[in-house]
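Researcher: Structure for this, please.
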Amino acid sequence: MAGTIVGTGVALPAQVVTNEDLTRFMDTDPEWISSRTGVDERRIAEPGETSSSLGAAAAADALEDAGIPPESVDALVVATMTPDFYAPGPAPLVQHALGLRTDIPAFCIRQQCSGFLYGLDIADAMIGSGRAETVLVVGAEVHAGVQPWIKAFDRWKETGAGPTEEEWDSATANRAWAVLFGDGAGAVVLRRSHQEDEGLLGTTLHTDGSMFELIHVPGLGSASRPLVDADQVRAGDHIPRMQGPMLYRQAVRKMPAAANALLERHELGLEDIDVVVAHQANARILEGVRKQLGIDAELVPMNLDRYGNTTAGTLPILYHELKAAGRIGPGTTTLFVAFGAGAHWGAALH
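Model: Predicted structure, token format:
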């Protein structure tokens, strides 16, 4: 009684920010960004667009695509690293916006770039145990608020004024990660299937907290006292710190290893896979994963160039686009892989 994906949806901010646009706010080169990261443009939320509002819109589209009314949803899982508020998380906000029943569980999970994988596993476990028939899984992110160039960007849009010297210096100092991220949400509906070898065949999930400093935000948590103050903001403790070279090495090792272990467990080979839906973090990481797996580039599609890294949103957004393009359909065997802050990583077969 596996859960099978019966509907997908996405919600993407209308506002597009190109690499050329970013040169207004930091010392960077559009071609350098493209060649080093694979990102050409990203969607950036307008003020008032939040992870929960994008997540609810994507989930509504997924329900419509599946032909399933909101009252038939038995559980909700929302993955994000950018919640609307410190508390509560986004799941109750999505639940309320969709008009889901109030007698169902709504989970908020924080596995960052691997959040959607963990959400699939939770949904499948609930379906397999008989506790749910239909589960919504959402990955949604709005990184706009933590971008070191966002204040200057919003002011430029309103008045045409350029960044202050302090804003320029801060954005330039953080450009290695600040050019990577975009905003967006994707969602899927999983429903119980009674067909053998249909739906989620299996997952393998891993966590190693010794690697938490690969990507982390040092401030805004209970490790700080007070939780937040001006000193933290001046020190940049409210924005991500990333160890790029080590992150690359771990990602290109851990994702292929998880994929191969999962395939071996199910007595499958890469020749049995129709498409690999990989986390869209960086084009070089995607290329490294492809080479480690020894598969053609066509098997590992990329939309990173148009959206940047939408963290928990990357897998469901790409899955939806591949489905809409006819690359995923009945009988397609899909391999999901992801690696993210925590460190959390893993693979799933559907």
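Researcher: Any notable elements?
Model: The two ends are 13 Å apart (CA to CA). Residues 123 and 135 are 6 Å apart (CA to CA).
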